[in-house]
Specification:
The chain is α+β, with helices and mostly antiparallel strands. The protein folds into two domains: 2-63, no CATH class; 66-283, Fumarylacetoacetate hydrolase, domain 2. Helices cover 15% and strands 30% of the residues. The protein is built from seven helices and 18 strands. Strands 1, 2, 3, 4, 5, 6, 7, 10, 11, 13 and 16 form an eleven-stranded mixed beta sheet that branches. It is globular and about 55 Å long. The termini are far apart. Bound molecules: zinc ion (ZN). Zinc ion is lined by residues 75, 123, 125, 154, 244, 246-247. Zinc ion (ZN) binds next to loops.
Length: 293
């Protein structure tokens, strides 16, 4: 299945277009794109047996984030060796660095990115969507708790992110629009059915067509199952929670000299088998930190 958020309603994306889940199920499932993950087992059982109506063509501009209101947003730092190295880290982490992106930063897959500073950077990321509660789950069982995979950008203001005395990443990664997500949540069996290995997907990012990031999710230091094991050892992961799994090498802050996003540039982010995100950068309301002023 490919599950999306079309104008605020949960839909299945088929070859012919979008199928409204609430309508096609005669109200068995509601229209809320986040809440459907609480009924994940029932939804997959229904979708595998239901006679679905033909999909309706839709305008991709109406796609919102497929999980617009996750209860918890986890994000992982330094989870590809190449990115750790470009960040000046040569002792690879033995525990995944974890922060959050506040929920108000989540937006749909296509649109504008307002730049509040001159130091906004890009981070292409694979996103895990939880489909069953996971608490004290071993890595070997972790995929059973995953509804599917999607894509996010972890846009990051490097100045705000690194404000002393103890850098706390979350605010610097949570300006409005800093977490575009989508275009759909793709289930693991769907990826397998189109010949993809969901543990080894190409991921990348271009700016105005220039490739800046390209890697494979098999290069993750902490794989998806290990992340679920480590996170769920501390707290329960709930249906509809999302995990941004970290970004590969090629961010602007790691370049010599550093490069950051400029108004007018277009960022395209992709993961094979899932799709792509596109943001057009525009000037935003200026922001300065106390330490930078
Ligand atoms: Zn990131």
């Amino acid at each position: 299945m490919r599950i999306a958020n079309l104008a605020g309603r949960a839909v299945l994306i088929t070859d012919s277009g979008a199928v409204d889940i609430a309508e096609a199920s005669h109200g068995r499932f509601g229209p809320d794109p986040t809440a459907i993950y609480r009924d994940w087992a029932d939804l997959t059982a229904w979708a595998s047996t239901a006679e679905l109506p033909a999909g309706t063509p839709y305008d991709e501009a109406d796609l919102g984030a497929p999980v617009p209101e996750p209860g918890q947003v986890f994000a992982i730092g330094l989870n590809y060796r190449g990115h750790a190295l470009e960040s000046g880290i040569t002792d690879f982490p033995v525990e995944p660095p974890v922060f959050t992106k506040f929920r108000s930063s989540i937006t749909g897959p296509y649109g504008q990115l307002e730049l509040p500073t001159a130091t906004v950077d890009w981070e292409a990321e694979l996103v895990v969507v939880i489909g069953a509660e996971a608490h004290h789950v071993a890595a070997a069982d972790a995929w059973d708790h995953v509804a599917g995979l999607t894509i996010a950008q972890d846009y990051s203001d490097r100045t705000r992110q690194l404000v002393p005395p103890v850098p706390q990443f979350s605010l610097g990664k949570s300006f409005p629009g800093f977490t575009p997500m989508g275009p759909a949540v793709v289930t693991l069996d769907e990826l397998t059915s189109v010949g993809r290995d969901y543990e080894d997907l190409e991921i990348g990012c271009t700016i105005d067509g220039e490739q800046v990031q390209k890697s494979r999710t098999s290069d993750l230091i902490f794989s998806v199952p290990v992340l679920i094991e480590r996170l769920s050892a501390v707290l329960p992961l709930q249906p509809g929670d999302v995990i941004l799994t970290g970004t590969p090498a090629g961010v602007g802050g790691g370049m010599q000299p550093p490069r950051f996003l400029q108004a007018g540039e277009e960022v395209v982010t992709w993961v094979e088998g899932i799709g792509e995100l596109r943001q057009h950068c525009v000037p935003g309301r200026p922001h300065t930190t106390a330490s930078a002023s």
